[in-house]
Amino acid sequence: MRSRQNDIFVNGTLLEKTFSINNALKRLVRCLFAEGLLDPSRLIFTSDQVCYPLKQGQLFFEHLQIAPADTFIHYGQIIWRDNRGQKNNITDHNKLIDLIKDELDFRYTTAGIEGLKADITNSINNDIRARQYRQKWNATLSQKITLSGETTFTDYLRHHISPADAAILLDQWGSLEGHPYYPTWKCRSNLSPESVELLSPEFDAIVPVRIAALRTDMAYIETMPDKKNYQGWFAEQFPVLWQEWKQQLNHKKYDEKEWLPLPIHSWHLTACVQQHYADDIASGILILEGPDLQTRPSMSFRTMRPLTPENAPFIKLPVAIWMTSEMRSLQAKSIHMGPRISQLIKEILHNEDGFNQSVSILEEQIAFHYKHKERQDDAEGKYLSVVFRQAYSAPKCYEKCLPVTVATLLTSLPQNNNPLITELIASSEQSVENWFRQYAQVVLHPVISLYLLYGIGLEAHQQNTQILFSDEGMARHLLIRDFGDGRTYAPLLHERGYSLQPYSYPGILPTVFFDDIEPVRTFVVDACFLTHLHELALCLTSHYDLDSPVLWKILREVTDQVFNALKKRVSNSLWQRERKMFLSEPWSTRSLLSMHLSQYQNYRLQHELTNPLNFIA
């Protein structure tokens, strides 16, 4: 049951409280205008503020910046003046929601409104605590930088930590903000504050994972072709852990050949599995006793990197926690599709030479979920499942590069309030424009190539994407992860001699499409263009005080260059249509605030944004 927390955390400092509350208001205002819940055309601009008229009065926004792609960024105060002329400052999201809820261009429910309020409050409270911890963490990192003799954070990471260790450090440390367009960016409403701190990456957490045992005839297993023997593979990846697990089974007079090692998140074990699967435990299908594996949660919270062995695979797990937009189960769709798409992309990259060695993937090599041999219901396994993802790996020519998760690029440095991306630009000795052009080329060449040639949509958003940077701070290579929900347009695959078996189950949204490429295009635009490249352009434009359209102009030029390079390999009609959709037509993206207000009755609500690449054409 999700708890409702409606009081702001009282022990944070005034500065932290103010920042986190304003952070929530900033996100809420952005979503309201982007999704058209408040009509931007009704805004009235004056010399020092912006007015939005309501039936009962007027809202005044101080320092409301309007950026490309209908992005409304609010930096100042919000003032309410009613029709009697009385003024009040809007100091939290509850007041703002109450004022505008009856004028939203959307049918909401009372439960949806109250749920939104509670989840934003929970996000604020978690944000306050995370920023308190961040002060201590940054102080520790700053001291390490000084003691190492380095002057920058990125040089410290390059010269004193392995790339794999730097990758997980940056993944955890860069988890502070979350997706900028999520109004409930830090919501973990059924976790206690203490559990949030113990389990979350932004608190530098180390979390135990129990290695339970599931009977082999009670599981569906999906693997890449060269990983057919799960038990043998697990024993190779975790030799010490395998022996401990095997000995505990043998001690109970069980034959390990009849059981599968099943990792279970420690919180999930006690909060969900023990009760939810009580009958299976009682009947001897599932054994919860087993050794524990110490892990670090990555940016997604529930994909874990084992502390040992050094090159152990990542482990993606279900956790029955309401986070950002949904209960984080791990459905059969992800189990089936992750290894399938990994194998497909692996073959394509081999045949395409990685599109000039521009992209690599972290393969989802083995996955399985509980599936009772008699009932044969995939849905029963959504809270008892696992995906094993390849350990951090870079091509040999890039193995000395620094891997940085994209969200981390926007995170303030330990030594100052500048985003980490500024250190890389300074190291490069390039102009911001030239640095960004190279970055955009590294990202867009493989993303558009896989889409236009093969109909494969990479979810290259801030959390799923790592960029490998050279010693000079320049982007060199794209590393992408998480394929269970990836979208594919089958006809383009078939044209090039490939196929992908789709997963189908009643009530589960498809990810392989046959009639229309639009869902795949929207997937690419939303993840790569809007929530990744657009956000970097916003950050750099603001930090360096650039002329507003310059970086979006570069994005248009690079996108056009990639399309031109691929023109001879696709039909003219496809090329013309897709080029127009990416460069000129409005961009479709997910309506996350509207989904929340409707209590997620439809997970594919979308709205359109003005195409920022057409804005400067």
Task: Report what the structure shows.
Among the domains are: 178 residues, no CATH class; 187 residues, Transferase(Phosphotransferase), domain 1, CATH 1.10.510.40. Helices cover 42% and strands 19% of the residues. The chain is built from 21 helices and 27 strands. Strands 8, 9, 10, 11, 12, 13, 14, 18 and 19 form a nine-stranded antiparallel beta sheet that branches. Strands 1-2-3-6-7 form a five-stranded antiparallel beta sheet, with no helix packed on it. A four-stranded mixed beta sheet has the order 17-23-22-20. Helix 15 packs antiparallel against helix 17 and helix 15 packs parallel to helix 18. It starts with 13 loop residues before the first helix and ends with a helix. InterPro entries: Aerobactin_biosyn_IucA/IucC_N, IucA/IucC-like_C, LucA/IucC-like. GO terms for molecular function: acid-amino acid ligase activity. One of its GO terms (biological process) is siderophore biosynthetic process.
Give a short synopsis of this structure.
The protein is 42% helix and 19% strand.
Question: What do the pLDDT scores average to?
Answer: 94
- Level-2 CATH architecture of the domain at 397-583: Orthogonal Bundle
The number of strands is: 27
**CATH class call of the domain at 397-583:** Mainly Alpha
Category by helix and strand content:
alpha+beta
Strand content: 15-25%
**Nearest-angstrom radius of gyration?**
24 Å
The low-pLDDT segments are: 1-6
Into which percent range does the helicity of residues fall? 40-55%
CATH topology of the domain at 397-583: Transferase(Phosphotransferase), domain 1
**What is the rounded distance between the termini?**
50 Å
Main sheet makeup: 9 strands, antiparallel
SS summary, helix count = 21
The shape is globular
